[in-house]
Specification:
This protein is α+β, with helices and mostly antiparallel strands. Helices cover 30% and strands 38% of the residues. The longest helix has 25 residues, at 156-180.
Length: 354
């Protein structure tokens, strides 16, 4: 009997000691991972802020294919929420949003040990390579959680790290695919109204076109601002000469204005006028990198329909929306115009003065 009593006291001491030990252990945690994604902050922010996208990039369905998601009436911004049923049920609600900077969320997890309520946070920072996004979670382990993790061998920190790393990789992958999407549509012969425009002319190699055009348009915008001149249409580029061998271009970047503008002598910014033009119009919805293919399809349309290009007029492209307002390149719209004679075909005799 004494032995049993000693064993009982020993067990009691172990239990009390264990309780004291686990009770005094710090149960707070704050775990996060970061990744630089080659995309604008607004695009990365929108991907996370819209909870309907989480099924696309989240790693949890791979771990629990039984998960079923239910969305609330609001799915982005403050108050957005969704819940899921699976091996472990839960829900998440967005509580605070600072556009393109931060998202705070409340997470509810229904575990075998009861309900847990950690906080989730997202930070978005513009860096030279794109956007540094940080995904973190913080909370407090219960006494039973600490005991369970100690004896079960479960690596809570390691599991959270894996989830964060895989989730961030998923975000980067889905954004990369989103940015690659594009569509080219040849709409046929269209009438472009022409009009006055301010322009800057320069030469450029193919690989420098984007930065060159940006600088040229910047010159025009500054000139218009200094002289209180209003823009009358979307910016465009006229291609005067293209050397396919060397990859060199002579081009003018331009912005439409309502009337003729007399520019100072020696100014790089000049004023021109485009006559109303009949042209084969081709619309690219997507990154400007797809413009070479757009021109190929436009020129194929000209050839297939036996159209005659107008040698007196140059090809030009109109940027129908502002990339600054559309962070995803897949949403950029460019209209390509190849001037042609509207009523002539290359297999017809040209009637007129000889």
């Amino acid at each position: 009997m004494k032995l049993l009593k000693y064993l009982f006291y020993l067990l009691l001491i172990v239990i009390i000691g264990g309780a004291v030990y686990f009770g005094t252990q710090d149960g707070s945690y704050d775990l996060s991972e970061s990744k630089v994604i080659n995309a604008p902050a607004a695009l990365v922010f929108d991907k996370v802020n819209d909870l309907t996208t989480w099924e696309d990039w989240g790693p949890w369905k791979e771990e629990d294919p039984t998960m079923v998601f239910t969305y609330g009436q609001t799915t982005s911004g403050e108050g957005a929420n969704y819940a899921w049923d699976g091996e472990m049920d839960g829900s998440i609600t967005t509580t605070q949003v600072t556009e393109n900077k931060e998202i705070l969320q409340d997470l509810t997890l229904i575990t075998p040990g009861g309900e847990r309520n950690p906080n989730v946070y997202w930070n978005f920072e513009e860096v030279e390579e794109g956007t540094k996004v940080t995904w973190g979670m913080k909370g407090e382990h219960t006494f039973m959680d600490k005991v369970y993790y100690a004896f079960s061998g479960m690596d809570f920190d390691g599991d959270m790290k894996k989830m964060h790393v895989n989730g961030l990789m998923g975000i980067a992958s889905t954004i990369e695919e989103d940015m690659k999407k594009y569509e080219i549509n040849v709409t046929g012969i269209a009438e472009h109204g022409g009009g006055y425009y301010l322009y800057v002319t320069s030469s450029s190699r193919a690989e420098d076109l984007s930065s060159k055009m940006g600088n040229m348009l910047g010159q025009i915008v500054n000139f218009m601002g200094q002289n209180n001149i209003q823009q009358a249409g979307m910016p465009f580029t006229i291609y005067h000469e293209t050397d396919q061998v060397t990859g060199n271009f002579i081009l003018s970047s331009a912005i439409p204005v309502k009337e003729r503008i007399i520019t100072p002598t020696g100014s790089d910014v000049l004023c021109g006028y485009m006559e109303p033009t009949s042209a084969v119009k081709t619309v690219l919805v997507g990154n400007y990198k797809n413009l070479p293919e757009t021109y190929e399809k436009a020129q194929k349309y000209v050839s297939d329909n036996n159209l005659i290009m107008d040698p007196a007029k140059k090809m030009f492209e109109v940027y129908a929306n502002d990339p600054g307002e559309f962070p995803n390149p897949a949403d950029w719209i460019t209209e390509v115009y190849i001037p042609v004679f509207k009523d002539l075909r290359s297999n017809h005799d040209i009637i007129g003065p000889q």
